[in-house]
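fold description:
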Amino acid sequence: DSDSDSDSDSDDGESKNQSKNREDKQSDEDGDSSSNEDSEEDGNESDESEKDHDDEDTYRPVQGQDLYGNTLPDNNGEGAKPTKYIPPHLRRKQQPALDDDDPERQEKLREINRILNNNLNRLSDNTLESVSRAITGIYESGAQSSRDVNEKYWKNLLTTLVPPHMIMSTLIPLYIACFSGVHFQTGDMSQLGGFIIEHVILDLWNHLKKGREKNSSAALEEGDPMHISKEASNLMMILCYLYNFNVVHCTLMYDVVRQLIKSFTEMDVELLLLILSHSGSQLRSDDPSSLRDIVLLVQERSMEVIKFNKESSNKGLSVLTSSRAQFMISAMTDLKNNKRKGKDISIAEKASNYRRMIGRIKSNTASKPGHKPEPKSLRITVQDVLDIDTKGRWWVVGASWMGDQHRVPDSGAAEESLSALDLARAKSISDGTVEKKSPKQDRLLKLATKQRMNTDLRRSIFCIVMGSDDCQDAFEKLIRAGTLRGKSEREVVRVLVHCCGQEKVYNPYYSHLAKRLCSYQNKCKFTFQLALWDSFKQFEDMKARKAANLAKLLAHLIMNHQLNLNVLKVIDISPNDMSEASVIFLTIFFSSIFDSYEDPQDIVVLFRRGEKSQVQLQKEAAEIEKDDLYDGGDDRAALKENMSVFLIHYLEKSPKNVKKSTFRKNLKTAIKICETESHDFM
């Protein structure tokens, strides 16, 4: 019993201990939880007591305004309703203009005006470049708005260059040259060129409108002399020099000329004469075909005006006297025929001097690190400027424009615009417009197809070469069409050689054009050499007329120092085994050279050209470590031997080889050169 009691007592003690331990654990957990809650409460109290900002500095929107302070519409708690999007250029019109009484803005404008006046007051031929750089610094500093500087610059030009009672023929070229330098230095950053051209056109058209109204007023009926606005003349001269200095393209100038011809009043003729005097030669150089069309248009218009004056002489509507019309026609015709007066030559020389200064400004600007490409001439028209309010400015980067993008072109115009014939027309090359094909162009296209011009590029080059007025006209059209860039230059040379060979009678036009191409681009010389080598391979099937034409073409290039006699090294000359075409080619080639020189010493120089000197041959021999001094001259020696054989076998029997003739002297000199070493014959 005592044992059982002791066991039960021990069990009771253990159970009591376990329950006590459980109670202790629960109390510990309760203590921990209570301590955590106390710590959280303490933390919240500390956060509330230590805030990171003051309530006074906290922004809270006023009732009726949004977070940004804008007034909200009263929609009874429904929120702001969506509104129509307004473009920035229209949004600016809806906003009130800047207060002119704002002292800060007025101070900035006075500062701009002061800097411009200080620089332009010291402008002269000697300070043109420095003044141009100083004005450019205003734009580059970023301290002033470009638009404010443009407006102040234009007001300064308007005040100085456009007085109402005299033509500023001395100051306008200088000021516009300085302006052009600033335009090319600032580029698209300031949009200065487009801004000034826009204001010049708008102001000019306003003065023209007023002048034409005066022309038809009752004052003329009373016999008062016509007052021609000098402001319009000054504005036109500004436009002329903007064109002369490549700020604006000839498209605008020809557009202005056509607009003036339509009206053809006394003021219009005065402005046309100004254009011819100050920009006539440049217009002829840029687009001769358009100038020819203008001359025809002036003739037709002048006849209409003279007829109208005779019919309405009693009405007081004097448009233009017959003497003025005839003078206008004669001036246009002289320009078309490149006849310039002394006054026009002096004006052109002065403009050329300013262009050289602008060229130095361009080169200095291009040498600066990070320089962007210079702006190109603006190809805008008068109608583009007059439609600014309705269509916008397409020539301004990022500006909105509503042009004819929704117009569906007809199929004929679309096909023509996609064809490469646009390159062949001076009109399309100069102003990018597409017109209907003329009968002359249709004939040229048919002829190009007949001559197997099987690509668009070849047909375009063919139309330029065959449709140009002269060598200069063809060369300028090829330049504007971009056909002398890259690989297309090869096609120009091959088409020219082909056309020269196909002529029934030799035409020196091709030789002069070939010379001009070689002078402009040295790689054309090698291309002509390759084209002639390809022609030499066809001697077996070549007609005599083609061989004669190519011989005279090559003789002209060699005599004008564009090629040398090394071109002939691929021709196999043997007395008993030469084709008829090759004999004709070489006979006419050497005869043309011998007939062209009076002094035999010129023949020596011509035959020596292309030979390596003794020093050059020694240097080559030393480099290749050979003992044969003339190892590098085998090709030239073989050529001289072949030429000697041909000269003796064929040209000594020529009927031109008579005693005491220039031909005989030059022939003997050539044979002697071919039979001697280059370092022995002196």
